[in-house]
Write a structure and sequence with these properties.
Number of helices: 9
Order of helices and strands: HHHHHHHEEEEHHEEEE
Number of domains: 2
Strand content: 15-25%
Radius of gyration: 23 Å
Distance between the termini: 34 Å
Largest sheet: 4 strands, antiparallel
Number of strands: 8
Length: 335
C-alpha cells in the first residue's frame, strides 16, 4: 500500500474510535504512516537487518513502542490522555501492518521473536486506484471541506471513504480466496498474483530443478475465466555457452535469464515471466518481468538485447509496460 492510503485509512479508523478530535486524528494518521519511515534507515540496514524496510517497524513490537511514545508525548503537545493517544496510534500502526500483509509485499509482524511473514497476495504493493482515491480524499478533506462546509458534509465524506475501502478490501479478499480454492482446477497453478485491476489476476507456477527454471502463467479475469494462456517458459538457470549469434526466441530466453537475475534484485524476490521477440533490423530481445513489483501498468523488468552479429548482449533494467494480454510474441515458447 502507498503512504497516502496508509495515512488515510488510519485517519478513518481514528475517527471511528475517537470521533472528530483533531489531535487524535492527527496522531492516528501519523502512526499509520510512520512504519514506512524505516526507509530512512537504509544506510545502516545492511549492518542491522532488523532496520530494513518491512522490518521491525512493521511488527507488533515496533508499532507498540511507537504508540507508547506517542501516548507519553501527545498530552505534552496537545490536549488529550495517554490512553486515547496510545489507542489511536496502536490501531493506526496495526492497520499499516494489515494493509501491507494484505498485498504481495510481505511483512513479519512477530519480529524479533519470529521471522514468519504475513502475505495474503490480495493486492499490489502500490495500487493506482487506492493511491488516486487517497490523494483526492486528502485534498477534499483538508482543503475543500475544512472549515468551509457544514459538519454533516464532512461526516458524509468520511463515511463514503470508509465504505469505499471496506468494499474494496472485501472485493480483493473475496477474489483471492475464490481463486485460491480453484487454482488446481485450472491447470495446477501454485499462486494467484494480483494485478492493479481487482478483476484481473495472473495464475502462475514456478519450479527450479536439475539446473533449470520453469514458469507457467495465465491471465484470469473474474467472471470470464482464463482469457490468455497458459504459457510456459523453460530455461537453464545458468546460460549454456552458445558460441554463435542467438537464432530464435528460446535461445534468447535461455541466454538472458541468468543475466537478468544478476542485473535486477526484483527478479530474485518475485514471481516472473519472460518473452522474446526478433529485432526489426536483426537480432533478438528478451524481456523478463517481475510480477510483484509494478504499478501504473509497468513492472520492474530487464531487457537483454542480442545483436545479430553475435556481439556481447546489452542488459538494461527499467520499468517496462506489461502487455495486457501476454499473447505469444513471434517465436516465444508457448505451452
Amino acid at each position: 500500500m502507498d503512504l497516502f492510503t496508509h495515512v488515510l485509512v488510519a485517519y478513518l479508523i481514528s475517527f471511528g474510535l475517537a470521533g472528530a478530535h483533531p489531535q487524535y486524528l492527527a496522531a492516528g494518521a501519523l502512526a499509520g504512516g510512520l512504519p514506512d519511515a524505516d526507509a530512512l534507515f537504509f544506510p545502516i540496514a545492511r549492518r542491522f537487518p532488523l532496520l530494513q524496510h518491512h522490518g521491525i517497524t512493521h511488527s507488533l513490537l515496533g508499532v507498540t513502542i511507537v504508540a507508547v511514545a506517542g501516548g507519553l508525548l501527545g498530552p505534552l503537545i496537545a490536549a488529550g490522555t495517554f490512553g486515547w493517544y496510545f489507542l489511536v496510534m496502536e490501531v493506526g500502526g496495526l492497520a499499516h501492518i494489515a494493509q501491507d500483509g494484505f498485498t504481495n509485499f510481505s511483512v513479519p509482524p512477530l519480529l524479533p521473536f519470529s521471522k514468519r511473514r504475513l502475505e495474503l497476495d490480495a493486492d499490489r504493493a502500490i495500487n493506482f486506484v487506492t493511491l488516486v482515491v487517497s490523494v483526492v480524499a486528502f485534498y477534499v478533506l483538508l482543503v475543500l471541506e475544512r472549515n468551509q462546509v457544514p459538519y454533516v458534509w464532512y461526516l458524509d465524506t468520511l463515511y463514503l471513504l470508509t465504505g469505499f475501502f471496506v468494499a474494496y478490501f472485501a472485493l480483493r479478499l473475496s477474489a483471492r480466496l475464490y481463486i485460491g480454492r480453484h487454482l488446481r482446477q485450472w491447470g495446477g497453478f501454485q499462486m494467484p498474483v494480483p494485478t492493479s485491476h481487482p478483476m484481473r489476476w495472473i495464475l502462475i507456477s514456478e519450479s527450479k530443478s536439475d539446473g533449470r527454471f520453469r514458469t507457467t502463467y495465465a491471465h484470469y479475469v473474474l467472471g470470464q475465466g482464463l482469457v490468455d494462456g497458459p504459457h510456459t517458459v523453460d530455461v537453464p538457470q545458468e546460460a549454456p555457452r552458445l558460441g554463435r549469434p542467438v537464432a530464435n526466441a528460446q535461445e534468447a530466453l535461455e541466454q538472458s535469464y541468468s543475466l537478468a537475475r544478476v542485473r535486477s534484485r526484483f527478479l530474485k524476490d518475485s514471481y516472473q515471466f519472460g518473452q522474446a521477440e526478433p529485432v526489426p533490423h536483426g537480432g533478438w530481445v528478451a524481456t523478463w518481468y517481475s510480477l510483484e513489483f509494478g504499478m501504473f501498468g509497468r513492472a520492474a523488468a530487464v531487457r537483454v538485447t542480442f545483436p545479430a552479429d553475435g556481439a556481447p548482449p546489452s542488459v538494461h533494467s527499467a520499468w517496462q509496460r506489461v502487455p495486457s494480454r501476454w499473447r505469444r510474441a513471434a517465436g516465444t515458447p508457448n505451452a
